[in-house]
Design a protein that fits this description.
The complex is a heterotrimer of chains A (about 290), B (about 300) and C (about 375). Chain A is an all-alpha fold and about 290 residues long. Chain A is built from twelve helices and two strands. Chain A has helices at about 1-45, 75-110, 115-125, 135-140, 150-175, 175-185, 190-200, 205-220, 220-225, 235-245, 250-275, 275-285; strands spanning about 50, 55. Chain A has a two-stranded antiparallel sheet with strand order 1-2. Chain B is mainly alpha-helical and about 300 residues long. Chain C has nine helices and 20 strands. Chain C has a six-stranded mixed beta sheet with strand order 6-7-8-3-9-10, sandwiched between helices. Chain C has helices at about 40-50, 90-95, 105-120, 135-150, 165-185, 195-200, 220-225, 230-235, 270-275, and strands at about 5-15, 15-25, 30-35, 55-60, 65, 75-80, 155-160, 185-190, 205-210, 210-215, 240-250, 255-260, 260-265, 280-285, 290-295, 300-310, 315-320, 325-330, 345-350, 355. Classes of the chains: A mainly alpha (about 290), B mainly alpha (about 300), C alpha+beta (about 375). Chains in contact: A-B, A-C, B-C. The interface between A and B is large, with 104 and 112 residues. The complex binds adenosine-5'-triphosphate and magnesium ion. Adenosine-5'-triphosphate binds next to strand 2 and helix 1 of chain C.
Chain lengths: ~290, ~300, ~375
């Protein structure tokens, strides 16, 4: 009897192992384009040439020359990077400010129209805002915000604000009512209680909103491509797109280095928070 | 009652309401109004009645665009945004949490990568010279390099969008699967059910609403999306990857036919508004709308 | 310190009548308890006193001042919550200092006051720690310190001890009572634990379904419950009820009877009984108001011992009344312990029995 059980356990253990390994292999296979793609991006940007485009030959920093020498026909990389940061930080600031305000009201105040506004937010989340670009172009023109980074910031933040507000509402919902009641009883007004007690407790929500707003502002391409005309207002997306178009067939080294440079915030974010990533991204992803 | 009493919450909400008004409500109305003009780069309001809508059926590119849009939307949706998303969440949830979330994290990477850089990866994979990945693989078996962007552009944009689109479904499905009580699976395993049986008889039926939600939701966003197509093929070669949303964009911003562009977007806007309204009807709201518990202004 | 007066207070949440027209008052410096089962509206009442909820109807006075529309911060109240509601992002010192920061006090003054109250609550050692790093009992003390530090005129407690273990609960019970009487702060104490209410409060308001069913001193509530709900809610084990009694006069004596028993009531009960116009009665007696006999007598109720529950000092005997299947609990002398399944005879102390109207459940005697 005993021996039999042992054999059965052994067989079972093995069959589960085989199952696990098979699943992992399948996952690796379907994830391969991603793995290879990013692997290539990193290796290629530091190597002289690649044998048949795949195996690196010699390490070099030559591909990163755009950082210290001007590229002909392109604006200064640091000015462009600065513009990109302005857009990213601007989107982040506006989004954090407005969603922390709105989320609080939706979570914590009762007023006529509250549930209509919440429904509107959910509807807006499903609505493809990108289909409004023609009208937005005209609107920006009227507001004198074409060819202006502020216009981009305002537009980009605005489109994300309804959903961001919903996410922040979720974080506010998690703050125990008693804490806020205690604040009121301890002698503070509703507003002071919000600042001193509630806001510190939704810091994780603010962090999530901030990170995703920053990355989305940083990565923005279509609006920059459409609503910005002057080179002095270029951001990295336009710069990188240009480099890819001009040098793709001539110099993959340069192209990948520029691309990798542009991707740095994503990579940093990825390595710092990849552990909590899935949890965070549930809030941040817009289909 | 009245305004005074509700002054505070609206103070908190007003910035959000203003931007929603400015960048959602006004543009929706504006799109519809513009659709009845032939506005071009001179920005003159010149109402032409239904002319734009009459032009659409006679536009010889439209049939091409419509069929592209359907192919692109439904293949991406079926194979990736729902199909691949399901495969990944089913596979990763069968593994330990650590390994599972490692793979899911990898699948999040494309979505967080700036679109132009992500596009570059696909341009390289399908590079027409032997420097590209696919052609390198061909050379291993002594085949000549192929100009993929010319021979199969639709495949490329479906792949590129699919590897991004899968992540949303993946997150939704994973959360749903993890919410299924462990007992269900344990009981099935004790009964000797195989992995496929468990998936078919337990997991899929229990997450069918999530599948429906993701399908509905992603259909809409795919219909309206064009960013990665713009970056990778720009609709080419010769309109072979031109989808409705991109055709709208080209009309407005390459040819400056704002009136016609608006008329084309009206169709998407209407689909979007209707779908959004339908979703609102069906989503379970009551639980989300719990009343606040402090009545101090 | 102000007195509290609540008049016809109501709070409806949509269709839910959480509080439905209650009246009570607490004198200057009095300690009263709101007692009742879960969901009966105690917390809602307390939060209206605090100003967090606005009454749907009715009035709340502190002394003679109507405070219905006074925001919480002007009410000079301190409150202790069931889960303590300590601010998790502040350490203990900051938690206690938080209410003081609204007053224009110097840093030294604030520090002095915090240390003083911390000393008094025996939490001086943990001032640097975060609320998550201290025990439940310590959190309780911090919450109390935070409520007291501003020297409030009214203290509100919402089941402050229910998360503590039994020993700690007894200890804190005594401490809070002592503290309250020393400081003389008018206090309202919400609990669903009758022992807490009985031991701490000078008056108890018993709640049920959003209404106050009885308001009185612990003795009044225990000895003269106004209805069957109060009678069964107060006392541990609760009062015993036996159904289906009728009353008749026999030779100028007053008899109450049913098939298995006939008791002679004191004549002074006669007036009450006949004025009530009730014909069928429920008879109630407390577990300690009943003797056990081994021999049958004219005014005893026969039953068999179902199970024994020794409590150390006393023993509770569960008796099953054979003819009706009713269960009765009585305290027994340790010298007089029957065995399981033994037939015994219950003799309720006639002076202490209660009669209820089975229709309205109100007390008749
Ligand atoms: N904010 C609210 N919205 C809707 N209903 C509420 C709200 N607060 C309380 N209620 C309802 O009012 C009734 C009384 O609630 P309350 O919290 O006052 O009970 P309680 O006596 O404190 O009970 P417990 O002993 O469980 O704390 C309950 O039925 C409750 O569900
Ligand atoms: Mg309560």
């Amino acid at each position: 009897m005993k021996k039999n059980n042992g054999e059965l356990g052994f067989f079972k253990r093995n069959s589960e192992k085989i199952m696990t390994i098979t699943i992992i292999l399948i996952l690796i296979l379907i994830t391969l384009p991603i793995i290879i793609g990013y692997f290539w991006l990193i290796i290629r940007s530091f190597s002289e040439d690649m044998v048949r485009g795949f195996v690196p030959t010699k390490l070099t920093l030559k591909n990163w020359r755009f950082l210290w020498s001007e590229m002909k026909g392109y604006p200064n990389i640091w000015v462009t990077t600065f513009n990109t940061s302005i857009v990213a930080l601007g989107v982040m600031a506006i989004e954090v400010l407005i969603t922390s305000l709105g989320g609080y009201a939706l979570s914590r105040y009762d007023f006529p129209g509250r549930s209509s506004i919440m429904k509107l937010i959910l509807a807006l989340h499903a609505f493809p805002a990108i289909s409004l670009m023609v009208a937005v172009f005209y609107l920006l023109k009227v507001l004198n915000l074409l060819d202006s980074l502020f216009g981009i910031i305002l537009l980009k933040a605005s489109l994300e604000i309804p959903w961001g507000t919903w996410i922040m509402k979720g974080f506010y919902d998690g703050v125990p009512w008693e804490l806020e009641m205690a604040g009121l009883i301890d002698g503070y007004s509703r507003f002071e209680t919000w600042i001193k007690i509630v806001l510190p407790l939704v810091k994780p929500g603010i962090a999530v909103t901030a990170v995703f707003a920053f990355l989305s502002g940083w990565s923005e391409f279509v609006f920059i491509n459409t609503f910005i005309f002057s080179q002095k207002f270029w951001t990295l997306s336009k710069y990188v797109k240009g480099i890819i178009g001009d040098f793709r067939f001539a110099d993959y080294g340069l192209v990948t280095a520029v691309g990798l440079f542009y991707m740095l915030p994503t990579i940093i974010f990825f390595f710092f928070v990849s552990k909590h990533m899935i949890k965070l991204t549930i809030g941040g992803v817009k289909g | 009652m009245g305004f005074r009493k509700n002054f505070k919450p609206f103070l908190f909400l007003s910035p959000m309401i203003i931007v929603v008004f400015l960048f959602f409500i006004i543009p929706v109305v504006l799109t519809i109004v513009l659709a009845f003009t032939n506005m071009d780069y001179s920005f003159k309001w010149n109402f032409v009645g239904l002319q734009n809508f009459k032009d659409i059926p006679s536009d010889f590119i439209i049939p091409r665009v419509v069929s592209n849009t359907f192919i692109y939307t439904f293949l991406t949706l079926g194979f990736f945004n729902v199909g691949m998303a399901l495969v990944i969440s089913l596979l990763t949830t069968s593994l330990s949490d650590k390994i599972g979330s490692f793979f899911r994290t990898l699948w999040m990477l494309p979505r967080l990568t700036p679109s132009v850089v992500y596009g570059l990866l696909w341009l390289w994979i399908f590079d027409p010279t032997e420097y590209g990945l696919m052609n390198y693989l061909r050379s291993l078996v002594s085949l000549q390099p192929q100009d993929w962007l010319y021979s199969s552009p639709m495949l490329i944009i479906i792949l590129a969008n699919g590897f991004i689109g899968a992540s949303m479904g993946m997150l939704v499905f994973t959360a749903a699967i993890k919410a299924i009580p462990e007992d269900y699976f344990r009981a099935a395993k004790i009964d000797g059910a195989s992995w496929f049986m468990i998936v078919r008889k337990i997991t899929l039926p229990l997450i069918k609403w999530h599948i429906l939600f993701v399908t509905a939701y992603q259909t809409l966003s795919l219909l309206a999306s064009f960013e990665y197509i713009l970056i990778i093929t720009d609709g080419g070669p010769v309109y072979r990857t031109e989808v409705w949303a991109l055709y709208t964009y080209h009309n407005a911003f390459a040819n400056f036919r704002f009136g016609y562009g608006a008329a084309l977007s009206v169709i998407l806007v209407v689909i979007g508004v209707v779908a959004a309204l339908v979703y609102m009807k069906f989503f379970g709201f009551e639980t989300l709308m719990a009343k606040p518990r402090i009545e101090v202004d | 310190m102000p007195s509290i007066r609540v008049k016809n207070l109501k709070k409806y949440f949509g269709k839910v009548k959480a509080v439905d027209g209650i009246n009570f008052e607490a004198e200057d410096g009095e300690f009263i308890a709101l007692l009742g089962p879960s969901g009966c509206g105690k917390t809602t009442t307390l939060l209206m006193l605090a100003g967090i909820y606005k009454p749907t109807d009715g009035e709340i006075f502190f002394d003679d001042k109507l405070v219905n529309n006074v925001p919480p911060k002007y009410r000079k109240i301190g409150m202790v919550f069931q889960n303590y509601a300590l601010y998790p992002h502040m350490n203990v010192f900051e938690n206690i200092a938080f209410p003081l920061k609204t007053l224009k006090l110097s840093r030294e003054k604030i520090r002095e006051k915090v240390l003083e109250i911390a000393n008094r609550m025996f939490i001086s050692e943990i001032l640097e720690r975060k609320p998550t790093q201290i025990s439940g009992g310590q959190q309780q003390r911090v919450a109390l310190a935070r409520a007291l530090v501003k020297e409030p005129e009214i203290l509100l407690f919402d089941e402050p001890l229910s998360n503590l273990d039994a020993n700690l609960r007894m200890l804190m019970r005594a401490e809070i009572k002592r503290l309250q009487s020393e400081l003389g702060i008018t206090s309202v104490y919400v609990t669903h634990d009758q022992a807490e209410a009985m031991t701490m409060a000078s008056r108890i308001a018993v709640f049920n379904f959003g209404k106050i069913v009885q308001y009185g001193t612990p003795d009044e509530i225990y000895d003269k419950p106004s209805n069957m709900f109060v009678a069964s809610f107060i006392g541990n084990p609760p009062m015993n009820f036996l159904k289906g009694f009728s009353v008749k006069s026999v030779n100028s004596e007053l008899h109450i009877f049913r098939d298995d028993v006939e008791l002679i009531l004191p004549l002074k009960m006669k007036k009450g009984i006949f004025e009530s116009g009730v014909e069928k009665f429920i008879l109630g007696f407390r577990p300690e108001d009943c003797e056990i006999e081994f021999e049958s007598s004219s005014n005893s109720i026969p039953g068999t011992v179902y199970v024994l529950e020794p409590l150390g000092r006393d023993i509770i005997i569960n008796v099953k009344i054979e003819s009706t299947g009713e269960m009765v609990k009585v305290f027994a002398d340790k010298s007089k312990i029957p065995e399981r399944d033994q037939t015994i005879h219950l003799v309720p102390k006639i002076e202490k029995i209660h009669l209820f109207d089975p229709e309205s459940e109100l007390t008749i005697i």
